[in-house]
Each structure stands twice: as structure tokens, then as C-alpha cells.
Amino acid sequence: MSAFKKTPFVLVTGGKGGVGKTTVAGNLGVELARTGRRVLLVDLDLGLSNLDVLFGLSVGEPRIDRALAGECSVQECIVEGPAGIHLLPASSGEESMAQLSSDRRAKLAALIEEIAPSYDLIIGDSAAGIGPDVLGFASVADRVFIVTTPELAALTDAYGLIKALDQFGARTAVDIPTPEVIVNHASGVEEGKAVASKLRTICERFLARSPRQAGWLPRSVHIERCSSHQSPFALTPKRALEQLCISQIASRLTHLAPPPPASPSRSNPDLIPSLTPVPRLG
Ligand SMILES: Nc1ncnc2c1ncn2[C@@H]1O[C@H](COP(=O)(O)OP(=O)(O)O)[C@@H](O)[C@H]1O
Ligand SMILES: [Mg+2]
Prior knowledge:
Elements: E1 9-14, H1 21-34, E2 39-44, H2 51-54, H3 64-68, H4 74-77, E3 79-80, E4 86-88, H5 95-98, H6 102-115, E5 121-128, H7 132-139, E6 143-148, H8 152-172, E7 180-186, H9 189-207, E8 213-218, H10 221-228, H11 241-251
Parallel strand pairs: 1-5, 1-6, 2-4, 2-5, 6-7, 7-8
Antiparallel strand pairs: 3-4
The structure holds adenosine-5'-diphosphate and magnesium ion.
């Protein structure tokens, strides 16, 4: 059961920086929002956040750090992004946010919990590594997606993270879900499978855990281009391979987060009644 009342929480994380965590979290969120789900994307890369950059949003103040300091409500920090997705942005270069104390982490969880009932799904875009924030947020997640690339360094760090999660779970007696693996920058479906299978074999041997593959994404000029144009590739009008791949990953969550039965349209203004005001962004 999610830490955030009944709203499922999915953490997108990875051992290494630059492997595509933000790209996956942002586009996965947009893909699910496109299908009528009320999705909240939380920037949990608290020291060096950049989810808003992925969406080309000119997010001003306030951000999570101000809500944590009690200077504003968490609702005031929320901005609306593509496909009606809601984003809870963090600040970048804020040293005090790079690693939260356990008290502040609990307070952040409480702030998210406060708005959770307005959403069908919460996705967290995590920092890299095995720091206490990553382990702490993974321990309250319903599902953990670990992004890796075929590169040996990324794969080694993905294993390191799975091992750290395993040890953290044992030490704190928390049942952390076995992470699912997303292979980014793959040359094709076969390489995606091979990389995930290599990681699974090592985990089965040394951790008695069997992480499944949640999907893959191609190394792609289209993804690069969308990223430099600050627009999510999940919104590409033509059905491209990249989009099929992200919708396949999203399909792993459709059971966890069914769309609201009464209001499938994002244009319904009553969809998120408690979240006002949401600044309009050009
Ligand atoms: N499949 C891909 N093909 C091409 N470029 C990608 C792909 N995935 C991510 N990128 C690019 O790699 C860079 C790092 O991605 P990002 O999602 O920010 O990584 P992380 O959040 O893990 O640090 C970004 O410029 C992004 O556009
Ligand atoms: Mg990132």
C-alpha cells in the first residue's frame, strides 16, 4: 500500500546520473496523463532538479523547498504541464536540499500525502545513487523503476542500487518492492532484453532477487531533439518507436492506476478541484 493514502507512488531511479531517469519519468507521466489519468510528477532530484526544463516550463517560485520551510502551501507550488500533468518542482543548486534530514524527508512525504487524494498516480523523478533520500523514497514506493543503459558502468551502478535497496529493506524491516528495470539507450528490443537479463542473473545469484524488465527505450536522435526543444516525445503526433516503447512501459502501470471513471477528459475543470490556483504557463 502506498505511503500516500490510496494513491499509488512509483519511483523512477537509477544508480548513475545521465542514464535517462528524468526523460523516463517525465514522458511516462505524460503518457499516462494523455490517457486521462490525473498524474502528479514530483521532482525528487531535490538538489539538482530539472523536470521543469524537460517540459520547457518557466517555473518561478515557490518550489518544494519553500513549502518545506512552511513559507507556502504545497498546492501553491504545483504547475500544470503537457497533457494536463501536474508538476511539483524542486529547486536547483540549493545545497540544503541535496540531502534531507530524516525529519524533512518525513515532512516532504506528509506534504505529498496532503495532495495525493487528488491524483490517480504519483511519479517521483529521483536523484541518482544510493543516498538516504533515494532509499527513503524507494521504501515508500509501490513500484520502483531502475533506469540503466547497456554501458557496464551504468549496469554496475544499477546492481549497486538494487543491492543497497535490498540491504536497506532488511535493516529497516521494510518490504521494498523488487525494482523493475528499464533499459534506455538500447540499440533494439534484443539488446534491451539482454541487458535486463544480465542484471537479473547477477541479482538472482547474489541477492536472491529477480528484477523483471519493465521495458526499454532506443538511443534516439528524436528523443534528443525533443529534449532540446523541451517537449516530451510522448506527445509526438506520429506513432514513433520511442512512443510505442514508453506506452509499453506505461501499460505496466495501468492496472495500478486506472483512470477516473467519470471524467476521462483532461479538459474537465472539476477534475482536480482542490488544486487551485494552477498558474497558466505559456
Ligand atoms: N533514449 C535516449 N536517446 C537519446 N538521448 C537520450 C535518451 N534518453 C535520455 N537522453 C538524453 O540524455 C540526457 C540525460 O537524460 P536525463 O533523463 O536527464 O538523465 P538523468 O535524469 O538520469 O540524469 C538528456 O539530454 C536526454 O535528452
Ligand atoms: Mg534527472
